[in-house]
Design brief:
By secondary structure, this protein is an alpha/beta fold. The longest helix is centred in the last third of the chain and has 30 residues. Helix 10 runs antiparallel to helix 11 and helix 13 packs parallel to helix 15. The chain is about 55% helix and about 15% strand. The chain has a nine-stranded mixed β-sheet with strand order 1-2-3-5-4-6-7-8-9, sandwiched between helices. The chain contains 19 helices and nine strands. The chain folds into two domains: about 220 residues, 3-Layer(aba) Sandwich (Rossmann fold); about 140 residues, Alpha Horseshoe (Serine Threonine Protein Phosphatase 5, Tetratricopeptide repeat), CATH 1.25.40.
Amino acid sequence: MKTFMNTISILTLILLLFSCGVSENKEPGKNTHSKTEKSGHSKAIKTGVIINDIVCRDNPGTSYALYVPEGANAKAPFPVVFCFDPHANGLLPVEKYKSLADVFGFVLAGSNNSKNGLPLTESETFLQQMLNDLSMQINIDKSRMATLGFSGGGRVAAWLAGNNRDIGAAISCGAGLPPDLKINSLGFDYLALVGNEDFNYTEIWKLNQTAEENQWPLNWLVFDGKHEWPPVEVMREAFYWIQVGAIKNGLAEKDEQFIRSVENHFSTKTGQMIGEGSIFDAATQMDFTIRLLDGLTNVSTKEEILNRLVSDQAYNQQKQALEQVIKLEYNEQNKLLGAFTARDIKWWKDAIREINRDKGNGEINRMNKRLVAWLGLVAYLSGERALHKQQADVAGQFITIYRLVEPENPEQAYQQAMLDMLNGQPDSAIKSLQEAVKLGFDDEERLWQEKAYLELQGNADFQRLFK
């Protein structure tokens, strides 16, 4: 039991440093696209085409995915958004948000090197190498550079902005701030995006509560979703925020038509929330809209609406109900942490079945979805740590729980294969790897580099895993 307790005692630190989203990544991204090309520096940069793998001329070990807006004027300086995926899949955000890049005129550059588990200083090096390389190819507006990241990449995005004066804005999705950045002393514009079923939702909620209590400004937007890169329509709002910030800081010309479109978008969204009776959400959205547009248009009417919303009895009721759910969630997390050491697998089967049961309450159901995702992450990270320490019994407990929580996630089968090898069962390991591939595991390079599988490399079934 002592080994279990040592594992549990570091979970808070692990979750903060490696909030990676593996447990939600059920469909690994493919590095292919109908308009994707690979390029060194032999070709001029094309507009309207994703270039998947640009190798930095002066740093061949560093590469990035790139999208330059279609029809862009090559002579004009480009605003650039540098993107950071927790699994070093630079193509994923570039491909996902290319349509927004066309609308807003932003260049998107996604790192293929920065990933969870690396020191933040290494990500800073990758950023500088990307910037230097990109500067050789296009005219960058260095007064308008932003970072964007998801999960562990979201913390990277914030940290890079906090440690680089040239980065004026950071969008962090599904994650809060890294430990050495404080909300009251940020030297850049910060926006947090989080799904209401994201296991990091409570972290960002707490960050916002701290900001409110101390009257510090915090920009955050909540969307319907889990721990994932936000949908395009949500990221559109984040890009509105970047563009409006540039206008307010005198870095972009004020466009009255654009300002009206932003105002109409958020007014419509707030009106829909009011119509649905979501008064607390409407007030939160209105507060964001006021801070976004203040100084660019008259916000007095919006301030009056906000005052009426926060005075409404439903606002306090909904806020208090959500606060109670957040408190309950923390309590449930603590109980489940203790259960890792004290409960058998039968108990876990019953507990997971109960958590997944529809409770007939939207907030409670969302909380339980966050708990399930959080359980998957804790089990995954703890299993990884135990495997690294070659603690087979400990790893077996966590991997079994992980398989119960997320049976369709290929990572649980991959971990089981590593455990099989640790237990001297190569035939079982092959079967587990076949299951992982069937579930969607597609990282052949990772498979061949894994030291645990060295003795399997001559096995014909191992060699046929991806054939």
